[in-house]
Amino acid sequence: MTLPLERKRIGISAGEMAYVDMGEGRPVVLLHGFPTSAHLWRREAWLLAQRMRVIVPDLMGYGESEQPSDAELSEGAQAGYVGDLLAALDVHELAVVGHGVGGAIAQILAIEGKPKVRALVLLDSVCFEDWPTEAVRMAKAVGPERETAESAEEIVRSTLALGMAHRDGLAEDDMAAYLRPWQRDPAALFRAARGLTGRAVSGREGELGDLDLPVLIIWGEADPFLPSELAERLGEAIPGSTVALLPGCSHFVNEDAPQVVGPLIYEYLRARYLNERHDHGGEPVTVLLERPPAGFR
Question: Which tens digits make up the pLDDT trace of 35-79?
Fold first, then answer.
């Protein structure tokens, strides 16, 4: 069970964007991918908010944000919308954490430098020219006559099923949270998929090599959409980056291994973004690198 993420709303260039803004301190923005929403970060947001200001948008066209029929929804456009949000919130320096498509948006923000990204965490991220994923191809292939609530639900459920190694770990309430935005406007799912091109991160390996900031790359070893070889390639492209491959995990590592992903992000940002020394006064924290035994809390 997790506490809910309460959204605020703000008008930006493409419409009304929903976002979470919680905690105090140096800001960090958490970016979800396709076909999820800010709900993906329902655990990590509360953890990071213990030391940081955590901003978690629903990307335009996703979650509780407006689902405009005429807005551009490419990765580059989404980076611009996130930039609009951060400017409105008077955030000019921050850490960025991105999963999947959110990872592509995070790379664009870091490369373009407005606002200034001081630390970067990429989870099973869209990168290079390895695009689109199977999930996006499925949605792109659906014709207008089949853009129904039933088709949208089938794609979301199958994407999560393919992208999770431990499918029984996702509660039906959480599945319902992922489905709800697409049930409100089923065609929005297919618009979101058609908007994704991958062009904004393709051919930018040299610019990644010019990044001068701490970068953590987290990847599920069994990711069927974006193979773990991409994590190694990203690690080689970005000087000084750290790569963490999670055994027994698939694409949605937040869902497969929340006991690992949250503490990894938290400790990395605490040390490399907040520049805090480790406190040896507390009890040690258990970090598991595979599925915990039944009954573990």
Answer: 999 999 999 999 999 999 999 999 999 999 999 999 999 999 999
SS3 string, 213-274, reads: CCEEEEEECCCCCCCCHHHHHHHHHCCCCEEEEECCCCCCHHHHCHHHHHHHHHHHHHHHCC
pLDDT confidence tier of residue 286, bands split at 50, 70 and 90: very low
Strand 53-57 relative to strand 27-31: parallel, antiparallel, unpaired? parallel
Between CA 28 and CA 82 the distance in angstroms is 12
- Domain positions in the chain: 8-272
CA 197 from centroid of its chain's CA atoms = 17
Condensed to tens digits (0 to 9), the pLDDT of residues 132-152 reads: 777 788 888 888 888 999 999
Cα separations (Å) of 294 from 83, 131, 140, 275? 42, 37, 39, 36
CATH topology of domain 8-272: Rossmann fold (3.40.50)
Task: Report whether 62 contacts 179 (CB < 8 A).
Answer: no
